[in-house]
Specification:
By secondary structure, the protein is mainly α. About 80% of the residues lie in helices and about 0% in strands. It contains 13 helices and no strands. The longest helix has about 35 residues, at about 115-150. It is globular and about 55 Å long.
């Protein structure tokens, strides 16, 4: 499976590189980035989510979906705890510490995770990933928002289009009917553009990255990347190893393995773009936020296949 992950990452990287050069050539800027970002958040991802739930009802898959929710909650609890421990290793920096805390927890499980898992595990993998993404959005607008502002935004969590689409999708999945072709086909066509648009956006962000601060980020960025790409995945893998040992009686072992791989890949993804976006909104160090998104996105091409290889060996013991 790690070879499939590597292959899919290379395919996605090629799209991002093409976007990088096209952005430089035509001088695309913030306006184009916002256009694609809004299309992904408000149109493409919701269509993809609804399309993945438009399948025949299967109680085994519904049970698997709720297993993903439970496992994801445990994984997020561990990542939050580990990220809090990391704070003791450097002097307090009010404009950078919140970025480290959120960057350690929130990954690009939507823009990068969906196309990656779809390429490796197909539609079933994406269906399972939706459980992780649901927990992601809930934790982002509770814990993540409070890290940045000291407040919790339940309204933003409830009105998030991806969370709403998961709720609608579960209802659709449980109903004894399928969407008519005139609805399902457009959803499928729009959802299929997720990979290309997500990687195009990533290429644009790389092309337009500018270091606007005079801070020296080198040591802090290296330390963060080791923590985010090596140490935290090790703790996540330990949680999933425990899951594989204690939950096989609850759900089929092969399906449980797929669930663990989906959750692990989602947790391995680079830092979420929401982290740098929140840094801009709440007057944190946006240059550092953009930098860790950029660097982890590049390094993941090497670290993710190796981590998945290790997970395959360990989880099947």
């Amino acid at each position: 499976m790690y070879l499939l992950v590597l292959k899919q990452l290379i395919i996605m990287l090629i799209i991002a590189v093409i976007s990088f050069f096209v952005t430089k050539l035509f001088k695309f800027g913030e306006r184009e980035q916002q256009c694609i970002s809004k299309l992904l958040i408000y149109v493409i991802n919701p269509c993809l989510i609804l399309g993945k739930f438009d399948i025949d009802y299967d109680p085994k898959m519904l049970k698997a979906f709720f297993c993903v929710l439970i496992i994801s909650v445990a994984v997020y609890a561990v990542m939050i705890g580990v990220s809090r421990v990391a704070r003791v290793f450097h002097a307090p920096q009010p404009r950078m510490d919140p970025i480290d805390l959120n960057g350690s927890v929130f990954t690009n499980c939507g823009f990068v995770g969906i196309p990656l898992i779809e390429g490796v595990l197909g539609g079933t993998g994406v269906f399972l990933l939706l459980g992780y993404i649901t927990v992601f959005n809930i934790v982002l607008w509770t814990y993540g928002y409070s890290v940045m502002t000291g407040k919790i935004s339940l309204k933003k969590m409830i009105t998030n289009p991806n969370v709403l689409c998961v709720i609608v999708g579960i209802i659709l999945f449980c109903l004894p009917v399928r969407l008519p072709e005139l609805v399902s086909r457009p959803l499928a066509y729009i959802g299929a553009s997720n990979t290309a648009c997500a990687m195009a956006l990533l290429g644009m962000l790389f092309a337009n990255f500018k270091k606007t601060s005079q801070e020296n980020y080198t040591v802090r960025t290296i330390r963060f990347c080791i923590w985010r790409l090596v140490i935290i995945p090790a703790f996540v893998l330990a949680v999933l190893f425990a899951v594989m040992k204690f939950m096989p009686g609850i759900i089929d072992k092969d399906l449980l393995f797929s669930i663990c791989i989906v959750v692990f890949i989602a947790a391995l993804c680079p830092v979420a773009m929401n982290v740098s976006g929140m840094a801009v909104l709440f007057d944190k160090d946006e240059s550092y936020g953009a930098l860790i998104c950029l660097v982890t996105s590049i390094l993941c091409v090497g670290t993710m296949p190796l981590s998945v290889l290790l997970a395959e060996r360990l989880l099947l013991l």
